[in-house]
Amino acid sequence: MANTLFPIFLKLDQLNTLVVGGGNVALEKVSAILRNSPEARVFMVATFFREDTLEYIEKFPLVSYEIREFLEGDLDGRDLVVCATDNVPLHQKIKAIAAERHLLCNVADTPHLCDFYLGSIVQKGDLKIAISTNGKSPTLAKRIRAFLEDVIPTDIQETMDGLEAYRNSLKGDFEAKIKALNDLTKGLTFKK
């Protein structure tokens, strides 16, 4: 089956995210969120938190947490839910409640329960590329990310800033602007 996922880039600083879990997987998920959106509003709940998870999230003032069992009310006011514990029945329960409330839910290492995946991300300046293997191989996605990080030049931001300035200086209709930008960039290639 083809990968039918639709990639989107969310403004997590305008959304409210719940992360259920406080261990290694929760740290991986919340750090991915905060690396990409340091101003994301995240609430975490878990019966325990690893010390390194607490040390990491204390650097982010918009992240809060409580050490306790998950309560259905934890979903109130949330836009996204990430389940990151080793408790499969809890994940199934949260996913069912989230679905009833029309909340998007990611359940770690359980693709069939996910509404979305947290893919591997390549970022250089304002350039951001998301990589998905449709939940089949996060390891391969990480390898591809490493390759792209190596191939994309470190000065790509200067190129993007120049292209933005050029685009802003263009006159004419949309089609004429697209043609001018295509002509300018048709020879653009990235080589090691």
Note down, in words, how this protein is organized.
Helix 1 runs parallel beside helix 2. The protein is an alpha/beta fold. Strand 6 (120-124) and strand 7 form a beta hairpin. 20% of the residues are buried. The strands form two sheets. A five-stranded parallel β-sheet has the order 3-2-1-4-5, with helices on both faces. The protein has helices at 24-36, 51-57, 88-100, 138-151, 156-169, 174-185; strands at 16-20, 41-46, 63-67, 80-83, 104-107, 120-124, 127-131. It folds into two domains: 12-118, Rossmann fold (3-Layer(aba) Sandwich); 120-192, no CATH class. The longest helix has 14 residues, at 138-151. The protein contains six helices and seven strands.
Topology:
Elements (H helix, E strand, L loop, with lengths): L15 E5 L3 H13 L4 E6 L4 H7 L5 E5 L12 E4 L4 H13 L3 E4 L12 E5 L2 E5 L6 H14 L4 H14 L4 H12 L7
Parallel strand pairs: 1-2, 1-4, 2-3, 4-5
Antiparallel strand pairs: 6-7
Helix pairs in contact: 1-2
Descriptive keywords:
192 residues, alpha/beta, Rossmann fold, 5-stranded parallel β-sheet, two-stranded antiparallel ribbon, 7 strands, 18% strand
Uncertain segments: none
Order of helices and strands: EHEHEEHEEEHHH
What is the structural class? alpha/beta
Strand order of the largest sheet: 3-2-1-4-5
Could you describe the largest sheet, including whether it forms a barrel?
A: 5 strands, parallel
Q: End-to-end span in angstroms?
A: 34 Å
Would you state the CATH class of the largest domain?
Alpha Beta
What is the count of DSSP helices, taking H or I runs of 4+ residues? 6
Strand content bin: 15-25%
Give the proportion of residues in helices. 25-40%
Mean pLDDT: 93
> CATH topology of the largest domain, anyone?
Rossmann fold
The CATH H-level superfamily of the largest domain is NAD(P)-binding Rossmann-like Domain
Tally of extended strands? 7
Please name the CATH architecture of the largest domain. Answer: 3-Layer(aba) Sandwich
Q: What is the alpha-carbon Rg in Å?
A: 20 Å
Number of domains: 2
Shape: elongated
